[in-house]
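One-letter codes give the sequence; the fold follows as tokens. Both lines appear below.
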Amino acid sequence: MKKVLSVLLTVILVCSIGVIGAQAASYDPDRTAWCLIYKNNPYSDTKVVYGTDKYFGGRNTYLSDYELVITPLYYSAKDNQYIVDHYACLAINSALYSTHTNKRAASNWKTRIRPYGHSSGCDGGGFIWYT
């Protein structure tokens, strides 16, 4: 019985290490573009990244006066402008982690953060994670 339990615990430990290693390998901070917004800024954009789909997110700090809108944008050659993929509103002192964009034809992407309904008043950050 002790031998079976020992083997079972070893298998669980090895599998746990494999899962943790796989999760760590899936995120590379060097492949993440960041932007910051301060209370006197109307908006902030990440650098432009290229691909079919991305992950985005951000944080609205407790110093903000308003909700923070995080929007992934993709470039449409047809319209010759950046188009909103979708967006999320973050309450004061909240965060959004690794939300997946819609899959599109390969395009340029960026994330924009801005105060909801105001021209300034937020303190926070946003990111777009390119794979």
Notes: Residues 4-25 have pLDDT under 50 and may be disordered. The two ends are 46 Å apart (CA to CA). The longest helix spans residues 2-26. The CA atoms of residues 39 and 113 lie 12 Å apart.
